[in-house]
Amino acid sequence: MKMLTTHTKQELQRKAAILKQHETYAYQAAYYLVEDEALAAEAATKALIAILQDESFFQLSEQLQHNRVKQAVMKQALLTKAAVLQPSM
Fold it and tell me: Is the distance from CB of 65 to CB of 57 less than 8 angstroms?
């Protein structure tokens, strides 16, 4: 297993702190769309994980970050809800 450098750890902590600022909003927006706590948590988590992998997100202003979070959450919430609504085969 590869050891994380101090710089890498600091960078992950910085990104985690930024994402933490958007966590409540992500859950609230997802819940508004799916109207289910578990599905909202799943959608918000998936959206934030996707954002974590987008390096450009962390260079945006706070308002643009908020907009990007909204887009990602809407996408994940709708995908999550659609998966639940699809009939089993």
Answer: yes
Cα–Cα separations (whole angstroms), residue 40 to 1, 14, 35, 60: 33, 25, 7, 25
Show Cβ contacts of residue 33 under 8 Å, excluding neighbours closer than 6 positions: 40, 43, 73, 74, 77, 78, 81
Domain locations along the chain:
16-83
DSSP class of 53: T
How many whole angstroms separate alpha carbon 45 and alpha carbon 5?
Answer: 26
CA–CA distance, 14 with 11 (Å, rounded to integer):
5
pLDDT digits (tens, 9 = 90+) for 62-74: 999 999 999 999 9
Cα separation of 34 and 43, whole Å? 9
pLDDT digits (tens, 9 = 90+) for 29-54: 999 999 999 999 999 999 999 999 99
| Rounded Cα–Cα distance for residues 58 and 19 (Å) | 9
